[in-house]
């Protein structure tokens, strides 16, 4: 079990308000021209928010869903956003104007959606246990590419692999989107709370019970299996594969670990409710956390360095 280590500095996160209910999922974009990147958040208030990734400044809100939004993602050039909602739809948006491009109808709650390739195809999953692939040129004719034994909690596109990764509460599936074939199914003995892919799509992390798991997507082999003494709500790995950040379901703490040694590096408390999701910026310099308290918070990966709007105080 990883050991805890106290820091000599206390980090003051950037707090991003704007949501009125729990923030359930976060995603940074890739780096775009001008060395910028964006952050999008999904919330039970039904109104996903787009922000400047480095500062958390509000850029816009996507208005149109009639239920909680469980997932929100951006395509590679941040020109489009895709959302998944309790209103039985996944919607694709113009990320510059905020206008709805198309609404993808489902027969049950949609829990997760992601873009495939440049953003002309969308993969979704939800309460009906199906993983669907939508060609946006023919949005009324989706293809069911895989099925789960229970509701699909999350689905992500693994870049450069023509593969989607989906998870229900006990299984992770790797799906070849070209053949609609399940390449591998992994049984996870503990209830899955969250899955996350690194920006290059090559490492999958998973929070399940009191375990932090990670698989190499190329080989589909386990590269991390860490047991901790708390219920893990989310686990994310930075692009450099040097750090893991986790959230706790009940203790409200955010913990950071060295990826290689599994030693606990930092512990932070800032949210006033359970942490539902965490993700790293594309350069790995910061990470974002979303909580039951309705806020998004941005944290430095390397406290004490000059980046964005950060301020620290010695203790």
Automatic annotation (TrEMBL):
<comment type="similarity">
    <text>Belongs to the WD repeat STRAP family.</text>
</comment>
<feature type="repeat" description="WD">
    <location>
        <begin position="103"/>
        <end position="144"/>
    </location>
</feature>
<keyword id="KW-0677">Repeat</keyword>
<dbReference type="InterPro" id="IPR020472">
    <property type="entry name" value="WD40_PAC1"/>
</dbReference>
<dbReference type="GO" id="GO:0003723">
    <property type="term" value="F:RNA binding"/>
</dbReference>
<feature type="repeat" description="WD">
    <location>
        <begin position="268"/>
        <end position="300"/>
    </location>
</feature>
<dbReference type="InterPro" id="IPR036322">
    <property type="entry name" value="WD40_repeat_dom_sf"/>
</dbReference>
<dbReference type="GO" id="GO:0032797">
    <property type="term" value="C:SMN complex"/>
</dbReference>
<dbReference type="InterPro" id="IPR015943">
    <property type="entry name" value="WD40/YVTN_repeat-like_dom_sf"/>
</dbReference>
<keyword id="KW-0853">WD repeat</keyword>
<keyword id="KW-0507">mRNA processing</keyword>
<feature type="repeat" description="WD">
    <location>
        <begin position="62"/>
        <end position="103"/>
    </location>
</feature>
<dbReference type="GO" id="GO:0000387">
    <property type="term" value="P:spliceosomal snRNP assembly"/>
</dbReference>
<protein>
    <recommendedName>
        <fullName>Serine-threonine kinase receptor-associated protein</fullName>
    </recommendedName>
</protein>
<dbReference type="Pfam" id="PF00400">
    <property type="entry name" value="WD40"/>
</dbReference>
<keyword id="KW-0508">mRNA splicing</keyword>
<dbReference type="InterPro" id="IPR001680">
    <property type="entry name" value="WD40_rpt"/>
</dbReference>
């Amino acid at each position: 079990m990883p050991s805890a280590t106290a820091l000599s500095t206390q980090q003051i996160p950037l707090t991003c308000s704007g949501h009125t209910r729990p923030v359930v999922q976060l995603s940074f974009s890739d780096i775009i021209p001008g060395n910028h990147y964006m952050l999008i958040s999904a919330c039970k208030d039904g109104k996903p928010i787009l922000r400047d990734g480095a500062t958390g400044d509000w850029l816009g809100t996507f208005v149109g869903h009639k239920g909680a939004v469980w997932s929100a993602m951006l395509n590679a050039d941040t020109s489009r956003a895709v959302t998944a909602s309790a209103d039985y739809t996944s919607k694709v948006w113009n990320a510059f104007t905020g206008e709805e491009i198309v609404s993808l109808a489902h027969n049950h709650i949609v829990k997760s959606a992601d873009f495939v390739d440049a953003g002309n195809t969308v993969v979704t999953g939800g309460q009906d246990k199906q993983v669907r692939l939508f060609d946006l040129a023919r949005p009324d004719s989706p293809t069911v590419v895989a099925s789960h034994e229970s509701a699909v909690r999350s689905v992500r596109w693994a870049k450069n692999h023509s593969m989607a990764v989906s998870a229900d509460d006990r299984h992770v599936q790797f799906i070849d989107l070209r053949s609609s074939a399940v390449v591998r199914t992994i049984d996870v003995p503990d209830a899955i709370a969250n899955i996350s892919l690194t920006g290059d799509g090559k490492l999958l992390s998973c929070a399940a019970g009191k375990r932090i798991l990670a698989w190499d997507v190329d080989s589909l082999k386990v590269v991390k299996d860490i047991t901790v003494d708390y219920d893990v709500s989310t686990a994310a790995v930075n692009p450099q594969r040097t750090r893991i950040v986790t959230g706790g379901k009940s203790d409200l703490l955010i913990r950071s670990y060295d990826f290689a040694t599994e030693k606990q590096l930092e512990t932070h408390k800032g949210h006033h409710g359970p942490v539902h999701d965490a993700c790293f910026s594309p350069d790995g310099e910061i990470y974002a956390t979303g909580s039951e308290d309705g806020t998004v918070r941005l944290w430095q990966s390397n406290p004490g360095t000059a980046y964005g709007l950060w301020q620290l105080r010695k203790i």
